[in-house]
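Bug #77: duplicate submission created two jobs. Keeping one. Sequence:
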Amino acid sequence: MLLKRLKGWELPERAVTPESIFQNRRALLKGLAAGPMVLSAAALAGCSDEASAEADAAKLLASVEPDPSSHLYPVKRNPAYADGGPDRPITDSDLATSYNNFYEFGSHKNISRAAQALKIRPWTVTLDGEIAQPKTIDIDDLLDKMPLEERVYRLRCVEAWSMVVPWSGFPLSALVKLAEPLSSAKYIRMETFMDPENAKGQKQHWYPWPYIEGLSIEEAMNDLAFIATGIYGKPMPRQNGAPLRLAVPWKYGFKSTKSIVRFTFTSERPVSFWEELQESEYGFWANVNPEVPHARWSQASERPLGGDGKIPTLLYNGYAEQVAGLYKGMEGERLFT
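Kept job's structure:
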């Protein structure tokens, strides 16, 4: 009898949330309106705040333009990244698409409704800096060029909550190869969109907009580094970072920057958004380590969304086998904050 030994980050296929749950329109409305859709005489008359909110949510949903890349999904799951790990079930899609950090639209978690204001077309991605030839690519042309696949990854937020998600997208290394960086390029600086008219959070002047993140070239070329363009077999929802975001599962979630418009290849280490705000609490590398606490809380455990308690946090979020070698000889660096 052939027995398969699960790797430290794997979980069984049976744990994946059925696609039908994600497709359920009622569930989506629940995420947008923070309550079920009720079409009643009172709602039509605008007799209650709750009914008004639900009507507004329905109107907003109806006004959101469908993603033109819908025909590309679902994509085939990569068997090397088919599971999130033992006893780590896939997070319910309702939670993963309604409990989100996206400071461009607000500093609270329930920004899924506000994020529908994000304009995802037209959308271009610029590759520049120390590369053979700067270029700007339409998002749909980029998707046509890239080898799309699905991967199940853990995501560990620096705030000590976590989820397990089936992302669709392509390896970041494919984008690096498309850019043709020069030997002088040591880092990639990633920049999100700027649209304060629709993203009201960008009017908050105390934040250093636009959102900036960065990786070393070695990290970007690691097979785990992924550009996510979809989730749960569908195009990426706006609140999760449409039309493309970074997914680096061995790092804290704030490194997985959303709605990217520019990749700049540079010889200088970029200063990230949270690093600029509070360098003592948020460093450039931000690798997950349960033994290195945040300045204001422990990182030893985490709360899985939808779970009924806490679980221990793993070094590199359980991906040490794949990434620990990236940081050999870097003992003097603040790798885990």
